[in-house]
Amino acid sequence: MQACVTTASLQGVEAFLVEVQADVASGLPSFGIVGLPDAALQESRDRVRSAVRSAGFEFPNCRVLVNLAPALLRKHGTGFDLPIALAVLAATAQLPPEIAAGCIAVGELGLDGSVRPVHGLLAYAIAAARNGLELLGPPEAADAAEAAGGTPCRTLKDLRELKNGGDRTASRLRGRRRPSVPVPDLSEVNGQQAARRAMEIAAAGGHNLLMVGPPGSGKTMLARRMPGILPPLSDAERLETALVYSVSGLDERPVLDGTRPFRAPHHSCSVAGLTGGGAPPRPGEMSLAHNGVLFLDEMPQFAPSALQALRGPLEEGAVTLVRAEGRLTFPARFTLVAAMNPCPCGFAGDRERACTCTETAVARYQARIGGPLMDRMDLVVRVDRPDPRAIVAAEAGETSAAVRERVIAARRHAESTRRALSSQLTGPRLLEACRLTDPSLRLLERAARTHHLSGRGIARVLRTARTIADLEQAFGVSEEHLLEAMSYRVEEHPR
User: Fold this and answer.
1) For the ranges 123-127, 243-247, 391-395, which has the lowest average pLDDT?
2) CATH fold of 2-163, please?
3) Which residues contact 334 (CB under 8 A, 6 or more apart)?
4) Rg of the chain over CA atoms, in angstroms?
5) How far is 184 from 175, CA to CA, in rounded Å?
6) Which of 178, 193, 442, 477 could be bridged to 434 by S-S, CB 3.0 to 4.6 A?
7) What are the backbone dihedrals phi and psi of residue 276, each rounded to the nearest 5 degrees, phi first?
8) Residue 133 gets which letter from DSSP?
9) Average pLDDT of the chain?
10) Mean pLDDT throughout 120-130?
11) Is the pLDDT confidence value at 115 over 80?
12) pTM recorded for the entire structure
C-alpha cells in the first residue's frame, strides 16, 4: 500500500513543497528513506518507529520505503518526522489518507510520540498560506503567522481524535497581547548633542553612521539607543524580519510586536557569521539585522575580510551565497552603526589626555577599515568625553519618543513627496529630489574638488542633505543643508 503526505523543505528563508511518499510492501523488515536526506533526516527512522509505537499504533513489520520528492532537492532537518509517520500510518490503513489532506505537515517527533517545534515555522506557515493549505504540526506552528490557520498536534495520539471526527481548531496570533520589550531611552545620555543630531539624521534617512571618539565617551551607549528612535516596523517589515528569525531558530515574537532588531556581533565574528553560511546555510548577523540596526563596536578590530563583506549588502540590501547546491539570497537591508577609537591608545584628539601613538601606528589602525567601506559611511561624527559636571548634574535629555516623532514626520514627508527614503535614491531621481539651485551646485562642486570626494561620496552627501531637508519639511536642499551634510564626511579629527 502507498500513501502521500505534503510537507516542505527550507531553502534559505523560503519553504518549498515536498511530497513524502510511503510504500509498504511485503518482504524482509526494513525502513529506508531516499530523496537526498541529510544525517538528521536519516535518523528520523528510529524516532518515527519509537513514536508510532508509543502513540499506540503498530509499526509495520515489513519493507517500508519513504521517498522525498522532488528527489533532486536536498532535504534538511527533523521537520520531516511527522509527515513520514503520517504517510506510514496512512499506508498501513491505521489512519485515513484524508487526515493530512489540505495540510502541510511539519514537526519533530520525540520517542514518546510528542510533536516538537522546528526552525522556520513561520516560513512553513507562509508556504501553506501561499498554496491554500493549513499547517499541521506542533501548537507553535499555529502561532507562527498572524493570519495562518493551523491544526495543533501535541502528540501522535491527537491524530486519533481527528480520525474519530474531532474538530480542527485554528489558532491565530491576531489579538494576542504580549509585554513589550524595554528599549534603552536616549534621555539617559547626557550631552553629546552632535552625536544625537547625527543619530537623528541617520534614523530619518536610513543612513550609515560611524562614531569616533576616546574610550568612555558614550559611543556604545548611544548606539544601543538607535532602535528607540526608529519608527515601529510596518506589517510587511515585521513579516520579512520575523521570517529570518524563525529560520534561524530565534524568538520572532519581539519582531512581530514591532521592535526593530539590534545586532551587535563581537569583533571576533567571522565572515560566515556576518554574511551567513553553514550546512544547511543559515542567515548571518547582517540578515538578522534586516530592517534594524547592525552595530559594530571597535570596528577596526574586525577582520578586514569581514569588514569588506559588508560592502555589497550595504549597496544591495541583500546577501547572496553561492554554494555547490545553488544560490541562496538572504535579505539584509539594515542601518550600519559603527564605533571606533581614533587611534590604538584611543586618545588622539582628546582635550585632556595626550596620544602616545606614532603617526605610523595611527595610520595603520585607521587603514584597517579601508577606503571603500569608509566611502559608504554617510555620517562620521566625533564623540568626545562629556563634561563631568553634566554627568554629575544628571539632567535628563530629550527622550527617544520626542526624537522618534521627528523621525516619523521626516519619513512621512519623504514618503509623500517621492515614495522613498533619501538613502534609497540614485541617479537622476536623487538630483530631482534635491532641487539644487545654482549656488548650491557650485558649493557642492567646490567641496568635491577640495576634499576629493568620489562619485559615491557626492551622492551620499546629497542623500544626507536631502534627509536634513526632510527633517525641516523642506521641499528643496539649500546651501545650509549641504554644509551640514558635508561636515559629517569631510571634517578632520586632529590628533
Assistant:
1) 391-395
2) Ribosomal Protein S5; domain 2 (3.30.230)
3) 261, 263, 286, 289, 290, 291, 292, 293, 294, 313
4) 28
5) 27
6) 477
7) 115, 160
8) -
9) 89
10) 91
11) yes
12) 0.90
Q: Give the number of other Cβ atoms within 10 Å of residue 375's Cβ.
A: 16
Write the secondary structure of 384-443 as one string of H (helix), E (strand) and C (coil): CCCCHHHHHHCCCCCCHHHHHHHHHHHHHHHHHHHCCCHHHCCHHHHHHHHCCCHHHHHH
What is the C-alpha to C-alpha distance for residues 490 and 92, in angstroms, rounded to an integer?
74
pLDDT digits (tens, 9 = 90+) for 148-171: 456 678 899 888 766 555 444 433
Instruction: Name the phi and psi angles at 8, rounded to 5.
Output: -150, 160
Cα angle: 311, vertex 447, 413; to 5 degrees? 65
Instruction: Report yes or no: 4 and 36 within 8 Å, Cβ to Cβ.
Output: no
- Contact partners, residue 113, CB within 8 Å, separation at least 6: 51, 52, 54, 55, 155, 156, 157
Q: Show me where the domains of the chain are located.
A: 2-163, 186-416
Q: Any residues with CB less than 8 A from the CB of 258 and at least 6 apart, and which?
A: 232, 233, 238
**Which among 169, 210, 213 has a CA at the least distance from the CA of 191?**
213
Question: For 270-290, what is each residue's pLDDT tens digit?
Answer: 999 999 988 888 999 999 999
Site of grid cell 521517498: 67
Residue 394's pLDDT is 63
CATH architecture for residues 186-416: 3-Layer(aba) Sandwich (3.40)
Q: At CB < 8 A and 24+ separation, what contacts does 1-5 make?
A: 1/91, 1/92, 1/93, 2/91, 3/86, 3/87, 3/88, 3/90, 3/91, 3/97, 4/87, 5/83, 5/84, 5/86, 5/87, 5/90, 5/100, 5/105
Strands 115-116, 108-109: pairing is antiparallel
Please name which of 380, 385, 381 lies closest in space to residue 350, comparing C-alpha atoms: 385
